[in-house]
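ok so heres the complex, two chains, lmk if somethin looks off
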Amino acid sequence: RKEVEQDPGPFNVPEGATVAFNCTYSNSASQSFFWYRQDCRKEPKLLMSVYSSGNEDGRFTAQLNRASQYISLLIRDSKLSDSATYLCVVNWNAGGTSYGKLTFGQGTILTVHP
Amino acid sequence: GAGVSQSPRYKVAKRGQDVALRCDPISGHVSLFWYQQALGQGPEFLTYFQNEAQLDKSGLPSDRFFAERPEGSVSTLKIQRTQQEDSAVYLCASSLAGRVIRGYTFGSGTRLTVV
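and the predicted structre for the whole thing:
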């Protein structure tokens, strides 16, 4: 079983739609959570961190459920420019290490069409 | 520089050839990571440096893979006797401190194709 699992999609939605992505992680000791965005043939870029209380950044809302080991990303009012792969990312300090080794999900492909 | 710089951007190697991939992290960044991203997959951890010390190389897939960061800045990932399964994008990332607070910054990657 993968440590971070995502539905690879693809999700095809019209402009203006609301779309949600889910992600589960296996390590209950996970400490930090992120969503990264990756455009085709580009490097991953941090979209937002995910906090236990849930957090919002404009049209994007991230939620974390530690009990269920589940993370979500909601995109409202989708734009054409939101088309990308969304990577669920988890960090835990394995073996007492003090650095952050990020573990990525496979990514969910989103295509927003006119 | 302003960001993480990787070179070359693209590399085509014949099977069995040795390759060297370079990463120039953001100036002053202590932590440096190498990741491998196969087509259609998320990046997978290869190795981690804190300054010049390689603290974790648990993700290196075989002893053909070797990484170094001798002066605590530029890092090189070397792959000996390349195989077709080594074809992937190799991403380098750096961060100011060891702990991940705001994620970290990736370079544009080196796309390696082994033919």
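quick notes: Chain A has a mean pLDDT of 91. thats all i got rn
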